[in-house]
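Sat 14:20. Reprocessing the chain from the morning session after the first attempt stalled halfway. Input below, unchanged.
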Amino acid sequence: MIGKYYWSREPGKFVNKMTGEPVLISSSSINNALMGGFCFTGTVREWDETLVETIIDACNHLYKGSSAWPNEHRFTEVSCSSDVCTILMCSVLFRLNSDELMVTYETFVGKIMQTRVLMNVSKDWPRNLIKVRSWLPPNLDGTPQEFDIEVLDMKMI
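Finished this time. Tokens:
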């Protein structure tokens, strides 16, 4: 595994994506604005988009230094639970390929941005873990590079 990020399912709960520690902010939006703190005023769906952005960050980390490989040659596998899949499927950044809509009941093919993504969904997968894998150099021997994302506060759903 190359690295690990963290993301909170709780809308407005900012966490340090490297450590998972909560970013402490005051309870008042006015105080946050005055003190330069964070304040989330969007919808739950908008908050869920930040999970996809975290996956994109993990992909960027995996593909770092592989700029010679255009996006259409990049292949990413995302493994997750059905709870996390539901969040991802509602994202405006994730699109299913209409010609490959469903490979099996638990496998979907789509794109996040311009990167082709195979999404494996399993009821046996840990509910709060996402594994992002890539098969690009320097691992031409077929060994994927892996990056984990732990979803915090899954008790909400």
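Residues 3-156 form one domain.
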